[in-house]
Amino acid sequence: MKDYVCTLYFWIFVLGLFIALGFFSGCVRIVKEAVYVPTKCEINPPKMPIPTNDIIENQKRVLIYTEELESGLNFCVKGE
Predict the structure, then answer these.
(1) In this predicted model, what pLDDT tens digit does every residue of 34-47 receive, in sequence order?
(2) Measured distance CA(26)–CA(19) in Å, rounded
(3) Cα(42)–Cα(49) distance, rounded to whole angstroms?
(4) What is the Cα–Cα distance from 1 to 3, expressed in whole angstroms?
(5) Burial class (CB in 10 A: 0-12, 13-18, 19+), 61
(6) I need a labelling partner for 5 at 20 to 30 A (CA). Which of 23, 30, 57, 66 fits?
(7) Where are the domains of the chain?
(8) Contact assessment for residue 58 and residue 51, using Cβ atoms and an 8 Å cutoff
(9) Neighbours of 73 (CB within 10 A)
């Protein structure tokens, strides 16, 4: 009977240990992220390129358009 009680206490201890590990594994972590505050920015978006039959010329115009748009948005974000 004494062995039975000892093994019962052992298994209760092991079960309690697993419950404690499960409980404390969900502890809070601090996560720091950048917070962006919306600001009013007056930019005039460039005109979108008109597609033509030349694929290379179309891609060139689209790349120029995206660079102009990006520089305008960088002005709003960084003030450059």
Answers:
(1) 887 777 788 888 88
(2) 12
(3) 21
(4) 5
(5) middle
(6) 23
(7) 2-29+38-78
(8) yes
(9) 13
CA 6/CA 12 separation, integer angstroms: 10
Report how far residue 54's alpha carbon sits from residue 52's, in angstroms, rounded to the nearest whole number.
Answer: 6
What does the block give as tokens for 55? 């694929």
Residue carrying the six token digits 């115009």: 61
Q: How many helices (H) and strands (E) does the chain have?
A: 2, 0
d(C-alpha 64, C-alpha 61), whole Å: 5
What pLDDT score does 46 carry? Answer: 86
Quote the pLDDT of residue 80.
53
Question: Splitting the chain (80 residues) into consecutive groups of 10 residues, what average pLDDT does each group show?
Answer: 76 89 77 83 85 93 93 76
Amino acid identity of residue 21, one-letter, is L
Phi, psi of 21 (to 5 degrees): -65, -40
